[in-house]
## 1
Amino acid sequence: MVAYVTYHLLLKKSLTTLHAIFLVGLYVVLFFIPSVIWAQQYDLLIKSGHVVDPKNRINAKKDVAVAAGKIAKVADDIPAAQSKKIIDATGLYVVPGLIDIHTHVFVGTKPDKFADGIYSVSPDDFTFKSGVTTVVDAGTSGWRNFPLFKEQVIDKSQTRVLAFINIAGSGMSGKPLQEDLNDMNADSAALVIQKYKDIIVGVKIGHYEGSDWTPFERALDAGRQSNTPLFVECHLPQFSLEDQLKKMRPGDIITHSFEQVAERMPIVDEHGNVRPFVLAAQKKGVLFDVGHGGAGFWFSQAVPAFQQGLTPNSFGSDLHRFSMNAGMKSVLNIMSKYMAIGMSVEDVVARATWNAARSIKREDLGNLGEGSVADIAVLSMQNGKFGFIDAAGNRLEGNRKLEAELTVREGKIVWDLNGIAAKAWKQ
Ligand SMILES: [Zn+2]
């Protein structure tokens, strides 16, 4: 364009010194400066890692470029000169930031409480060091106290915090409040979900000890009205497992799938077989989340279920004060545990990323597609002799363990275990 104008100006023999200076300036602005900027069009380039991106069916060595907080490009070879910062991920896995769909993070000061209390934990304290960039709070808040949860935790966290809200208005605030039928209102829950639809992904039912199905029906009603899934936690001792699964719709999620406790029938019977009605629910489309927690994961359930084809759809950790230092530890530890049980790396990554995103209807997350938010986990595979513990105190040996080397949240490095993104120190 500039050359064209110059050519015509020359033709007209009207090129003065001023014109010439102007045109040289124009050349610099239009071609030279952009070429320098263009050379470093990416903020971050993660090179030579093994990318596992189940949504986009990528399981190969690739480079991943990030610009303005988004995935800009995933390709076999992106020149290092095009990025301001380069990270060598040779020998490491590069996967979407992990999603934990079962946590309790409505932390506050109330003693002996999950809602606004000390039984919950602060998300950033536990997430990035395990490659997790998104957590979903499992109904610690209800439709009544969700705004406090948002103000106190969600808005203050670097971790993306989403939520299932409890059909009990005040969430997990202990008895008798959390069992008050008058505070379980489907219309109010649906309204709050609609108001905060970018954050609230569904409705939770749990912690009800009566035999009346009204709470369950109201939670289902709120799910129907808001077109969101129902998340069924345990502590519903009077409801039979078969009836719960029958009432659940395709896409609804049951957690603590592999628990073996008195208050809920285990999914594997006394002969070691997955109960037929459980397999029928899986076939119908009910999703099974791990929900490990302190008591929710038993090898006696998980291993036969895995062998008979009932694998969990997601690896919710049930992170809270009492599970973090027990057998659960982290989503990465659950992933490693399932590798020890026999699951492939690709399959454990799928459950901690794309499957989890789909189950909460957030298909913008859990993938490394170009244009997606740059939430990334760079993982190392440790080889050696490791042990994994279940809720019964049993130990399963394994020889591989995943560790988070680097975590990126919306293009920003938020965890760097060994300084692979840092400059070498020189005296
Ligand atoms: Zn829970």
Note: Residues 102, 104, 138, 233, 293, 318 surround zinc ion (CB under 6 Å).
## 2
Amino acid sequence: MLIRPAYVLISPARNEANFIELTIKSVVAQTVRPLKWIIVSDGSTDGTDEIVRQYANEHSWIELVRMPERRERHFAGKVHAFNAGYTRVKDLAFEVIGNLDADVSFDDKDYFLFLMNKFAEDPRLGVGGTPYQQENSTYDYRFVNIEDVSGACQLFRRECFEEIGGYLPLKGGGVDHVAFLTARMKGWQTRTFIDKVSNEQETFSDWGADAGLRLSVGTSPARRKTNVPGIDRLSQTRADAAIDETSYRQPDLFSFAHCNVLLKVGIGGTPPLLFRC
Ligand SMILES: Nc1nc2c(ncn2[C@@H]2O[C@H](COP(=O)(O)OP(=O)(O)OP(=O)(O)O)[C@@H](O)[C@H]2O)c(=O)[nH]1
Ligand SMILES: [Mg+2]
């Protein structure tokens, strides 16, 4: 008989009061719950903490950790928050650790049961997850590498997570990509299981606002949120990955990206350029 691994979850949450209750309700409803779930409020000022506290009072396996307030929103912030959560679980006996974004939810009560079974079945599975859907977009697997695992709900075998040194605090994003690519480089299997799906809220976070653009470096071809003119038209190309100005300036990170088409967006009205890899 397969032994299902115990898992822990960490959710970095920065001003997610609009969504986090749905996230919490979906995890509470799971048939196989985490050993511990650390929700790290990353300097939230919108009532996120109060919502989490309410559930943490009810469920001893949910814990709120609060990070100090800070001005900027960026993906290094997400990683610092995750790491603060990690220190709270590192002494527990778990085999799988996951990042669960605080704007993700599940309709399926067996979501984590399903994924834990996958980890039990394949001892070389280092990183696992499912696709996510947003209100107006769905995954199209003709354009996505099934070995790439979205960071919205990204699960790691503990041994793999420790071997890759955890998440790297990259301000410009791509944190989830670097994690699963490093895992693959170290010989682990990484896999998106398309039998199930999570829901991610369609939000417009402000991390790219300074640069006047909002693109994702990611596994989601249908997902383009930006205020750069012309992007909607380009999104029709269903590019497999896009790069933003920040990652463009980081050729090493840039070369990590799995993509069919690369998108370079000019700031201040420069027309977007499209390159085929
Ligand atoms: N972007 C960002 N997210 C943070 C930060 N600190 C914590 N987070 C959390 O990290 C998770 C991912 O952030 P999101 O803004 O949802 O990033 P995303 O899913 O790539 O982008 P969206 O499509 O806009 O949801 C969420 O749970 C955030 O609340 C931060 O400084 N920046
Ligand atoms: Mg999100």
Note: Residues 204-277 have pLDDT under 50 and may be disordered.
